[in-house]
Amino acid sequence: MEKKKQRKLIIMQSLAAMLEERDLLKITTAELAKRSEITEAAIYKHFPSKRKIFEELRSEEHTSELQSPMYLVCRLLLE
Fold it and tell me: How far apart are CA 69 and CA 47, in angstroms?
């Protein structure tokens, strides 16, 4: 897997894991960067916002990665 795709996947997986603990609005990009073991700047290189990460997670391609109830709550809040 190319490095760019791998980083995007790590960011999305980290956010998915964090959504099991609390809702999207309470997750900071600093926390997401720490969990992903990258810098905040690297997150913004791949995604313009947390919402965009979440929207990509919602896509058909990644739905199997998301099963948490908190994900469903955040999805309802953002729609």
Answer: 24
